[in-house]
Sequence to fold (453 residues):
Amino acid sequence: MKKFIETVKNIWGIKELRNRILLTVLFLAVFRLGSFIVLPGVNPEALVSAASQRGANDILGLINSFTGGAFNNAAIFALGIMPYITASIIIQLLGFAVPYFQRLQQKEGESGRKKINQITRFLTVLITLVQGGGYLLMIKSTPGAVDPTLNPSIFWFSNLIILSTGTIFAMWLGEKITDKGIGNGISLLIMAGIIATLPRAFINELQTQLQSSIIVFVLELVILFLVVMASVLIVQGVRKIPIQFAKRMVGRGSGNIPVSGARDYIPLKVNAAGVMPIIFAQAIMFLPASIAGFFSQTAANSGVLLQLQNWKSPTYNIIFFLLVVAFTYVYTALLVNPQQYAEYLKRQNAFIPGIKPGKNTQDFIDNLTTRVTLPGSIFLGFISIFPAFVAGFGVNDGFAIFFGGTSLLILVGVVLDTLQQIESHLLMRKYDGLVKSGRLKGRSGMQPIGTNM
Fold:
């Protein structure tokens, strides 16, 4: 405890770090405040009532949990930062497939990044208008949710502008947190929305289990702890490929002394794709809920379409698992380029011991990446459907989503990234870090190559 208090004092004693943390907290508070400001002419109680009648399994409830309750509140931040995330994903995929975007991302440096940001923002506005229209249509179709005395044209026009402005403002908050705060701003906003539902879900689960058995609740907490630790391991886990640089001569003339080449490694992450496969798969699994809106109530509540709207159904989870595994391999193949690694090693006059340079090195890295990605993809697939298993054993649905899926991985990833940045500020000023042991990135004395490729 004494060490913890001393570390907090060190953090507070660094003026720049203190200001960054306070600014981040202020922006997050503004973002959460916007989740309670209701759109004009909308009755949020009717939406909450309709959500409870749809049932806990409804996938719209999952969307609501990602926005911290703003979705059911009909708040100005009801769409959250998700349109920006969708736009960023589209631009990132275009960067792999379209030469123009590839050139902007890889060859034009700072000017290319500025153009990418501008295009992403414009695309965010377009996506927000489309999603906002669908959201307002859902509100309009909910009995008692819209003031009947309000002019329909005013309702659509004003609220569409407000929703778009809310998303753009949230995007601005995220960028300001990244520039002047601590951590990745967009990720922190997503985390703020997700974690906002945790206290209520925790209390509801505690009250439920107190009526039956407190031992079951303690067991749930133990399982949650183990799942979090496993997620940390998979996020931080790397497979190090040892490399060696060629010998070089030190000195001049006849006094030259051969010096053995330095040893280093190429880090291949077990989960190189991060949370992106789950986000892609989740986006596809949200489509049935959108498609159902174009059908009659009877057609929407029948057959496979109904199963795909229930995040606890076997059909939903089998398809979700397979999509996550497939997207993990696809996204890893887009991110990890064995040919680029082989060329980099050749330029640096380095080699992998026992492997010939060139094509053999490329094939070796490619095969190793495929093998390393297998356990990572299976873990991601399992963690994505684990909340459904937990909910099947009686855990409250609101609490069950924290046992895996996008929520858990985003929380773990954002916390590790923020701690890493705080750690860097402390070490730069010759303070002890946050932890004496462990494997937080930034404490390693050896900088792995390939991070700036």
Summary: The first strand starts at residue 238 and ends at 245. DSSP finds 21 helices and five strands in the chain. The chain has two domains: 1-196, 198-249+259-453. The two ends are 41 Å apart (CA to CA).
